[in-house]
Design goal:
Distance between the termini: 25 Å
Radius of gyration: 20 Å
Number of strands: 0
């Protein structure tokens, strides 16, 4: 049953990759923090490329960065982006956008009304989550390496009788 759910399979594979890293817990934690921070930025669709680029640029752990970016996936992205927009809108003191403002006449001012709160909210959420992710990863990496992760159950193919 779990094989059909690609999200859970990908999460487990990322966890296995993270457990098999041979880097120091501090290096894994820095990579995870970078991935989490980039995962909270409003660059959906480009986050993995940005994360790998910055991991190479800052010489951080690439696999941990890749795992951290998975904080925003198709299941969590609507929740995260709406929360970022609301936080940014409240901090900037902007009124909420009404449905009547979204019509065919999209322009730069509407983009700024959505983009600026989203960017500010991503910074407000991204920095604390990166710090928390770093500390949790540093503490859990040694115990995660000792944990035995079982394989997926395999189907047995029996010949027809």
């Amino acid at each position: 049953m779990w094989r059909r759910w690609g999200f859970f399979r990908q999460f487990k594979l990322n966890l296995i990759q993270l457990a098999r890293l041979r880097s120091e817990p501090d290096a894994v934690g820095r990579g995870m923090a970078l991935g989490l921070f980039i995962g909270f930025t409003p660059t959906f669709g480009m986050q993995t490329l940005l994360a790998i680029f910055f991991a190479f640029l800052f010489r951080q752990n690439k696999i941990a960065t890749f795992v951290g970016v998975w904080i925003t996936n198709p299941l969590t992205a609507p929740l995260i982006y709406s929360l970022e927009y609301k936080i940014g809108r409240l901090l900037l003191g902007l009124p909420p956008l009404g449905v009547d403002q979204f019509h065919c006449d999209l322009n730069w001012s509407l983009g700024a009304q959505v983009g600026m709160p989203l960017l500010l909210g991503s910074l407000v959420l991204g920095i604390p989550f990166a710090i928390i992710g770093y500390s949790v990863t540093v503490r859990l990496t040694p115990s995660l390496r000792q944990w035995r992760i079982p394989r997926w159950p395999r189907r047995r193919n029996f010949p027809d009788e």
